[in-house]
Amino acid sequence: MRTKHPIIQMLLIGVVASVAGVALALAIDWFPIAASTAAAPIDELYDVLLIVSVPVFVLVMTVALYSVWRFRAKPGDQSDGAPIHGNTLLEVVWVTIPTIMVSALAVYGAIVLEEIERPAANAMEVEVTGQQFAWSFEYPDTPGGEPVQSNELVLPLGQQVHFQIKALDVLHSFWVPAFRLKSDAVPGITTEYRVTPTKEGRFDVVCAELCGLGHTTMRQVATVLPPAEFEGWLAEQAKQSEPAADDTMPASATDEEEAQ
Ligand SMILES: [Cu+2]
Prior knowledge:
Layout: H1 6-27, H2 39-70, H3 88-116, E1 124-131, E2 134-139, E3 148-150, E4 153-156, E5 161-167, E6 172-175, E7 182-185, E8 191-195, E9 201-207, E10 219-225, H4 227-241, H5 251-259
Parallel strand pairs: 1-5, 4-10
Antiparallel strand pairs: 1-2, 2-3, 5-8, 6-7, 6-9, 9-10
Helix pairs in contact: 1-2, 2-3
The structure holds copper (II) ion.
Copper (II) ion (CU) binds near residues 207 and 209.
């Protein structure tokens, strides 16, 4: 068998391994259930990142493993390697190509973010507060004018929500995986994001920033209701919260904290 040039061999192995790697990466179901308008563009972005990054990983590993195998020293060979110093063409190529790739992906990511975060005129404000170890929610715009506090996140289907996120103690991260978007809750500042639910149902709300011993218990539920049912829920909450409007500390938080 005639030995092919090493670069051609590496290229052949790399191409076959890249195709297999990309096929495997795309075959894996990476994403949780999709329940917002942001989910499709973000999942697509993730697939594009896989298609671009898997061949890069495969190429680097092919060159590394092939070189270890093909150019290893023969038994008993104590001689020095060839005195190679620098290769300008190679260095220009391996700086230019990744720079172009990373810049293009950054622009694509920025365009997707701009699209999914575009403010809607009828967006509903929801204030989210993270504290060890529970989320609480405030709805400032209610029919009666009084803000509604809730330990449950309830949202109307098809209406954009503008979350304003705060933290009372340490860093938390407000994340509804089914909506895809996530933002840190940082003491002293207000962070935000916008999302439009597209599916009725109950979805996990989690904290995605290690925030203390009870971090794993910092899980709640987001319920997405048809708009009319949501209005009913909000009106009901407004009625209930009238007598004790000053109770801002969620009872479950203190219980869980004491249990640690
Ligand atoms: Cu946490």
